[in-house]
Design a protein that fits this description.
Blueprint: H1 2-11, H2 33-47, H3 58-61, H4 64-75
Helix pairs in contact: 1-2, 1-4
Length: about 80
Amino acid sequence: MVRDKIIAFLSKFVDVSELKDEDNIFDTGLVNSLFAVNLVSFIESEFDISIENSELDLDNFKDIRSITSLIERKRS
């Protein structure tokens, strides 16, 4: 469910048809650092969590797997 919501959000902005869970969305050029702000905002509102400054590390947002893992950790 978390993964599906992330993919649905990303698909509003980029073509995710060939995107694998471990593909780095920044390195592939799909998104940029400005998009990260929108991504964090979406995550906080959609999953009712707060992302702390210490968690604003690119490794937490680089791919679908990392984003999903961060959300699941925050929700448990």
